[in-house]
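Good morning C.,

I know you're traveling, so I'll keep this short. The sequence:
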Amino acid sequence: MRQNCSELLQTYQQEHQIFHTEKLVFKGISGMDVYNITAPLLDQGEQFILGRVEPRASEFSQILAFRQRDGEWVVADEIPPLELQDPFWSRIHGQLVVGGVEVFPHPTKPGWLGWRTKLYRGRNLRELEHFASGPDMMKDIRLAELPDGTIAVFTRPQGDPGGLGTIGYTQISSLDELNPETIQRAELLEQFIAEEWGGANEVHVLEGGQLGVLGHIACFDQDRARHYYAMAFTFDPVTREPGPMRIIATRRDFPPGESKRPDLQDVIFSGGLARTGEDRAWLYAGLSDAEAGRVLIKDPFSARFRVRR
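The tokens, ready to paste straight into the viewer:
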């Protein structure tokens, strides 16, 4: 049974518990916003966060790497930027895979933008090379290496099929098989009602082979303002059945701040989940398309807190 944002929010408001919340401070840039960040990644002995960096009035952005220094995140100038939005990363077959969204002038709609997901791989952040792109007009392609060595691929088609945006799933044996054709063959999970949309943002391999999917669910209100919520669900790659979705954080769980536009005030974009191993997890997220923060929550993939059918 599909649940909409309103129903999921009611459950969340009854159950949620926030242990700590904070904005993150980014240094080494001027006149730019940093948002839609990843969770930290360890690269050659250092912790880095990847962030979307752009002027407030623009959609053309770069992905930059930031290293932690004295409680702040400072741009790592020696790591080449990527001309993309909304970074993500994973480790597949011993390689670091980094991706994001490339925007370009829409081929048939003057004044509109098109987009596609681009993926890079390499031994570290300094040696990434482009190896695959997704279909035009698709964001939120996410990968994870399964225990048997195959690769889980979550997709997010829009239009026909996909509506406003839904999650699909397929598996491949090698990164060399990742291309628009294999991505478009993904089976749709059909988790969202027609008026709402969502996507996967990060995938965790859990004990027993289940996958923990961090994502987002979103809707419009009557004034066409957007509302984005962080959500999570488990997924069985054998039966290809998703567990129930649940909201795990909202914009109100973070400190107040600025927004890119008035219709984006109630937006968080799940970036990554750093699990502490003590039934807690740090959720890293973009805030209102203008800032970034993290919040300490109950680990949604802990065996104690997982929602079952």
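Safe travels,
E.
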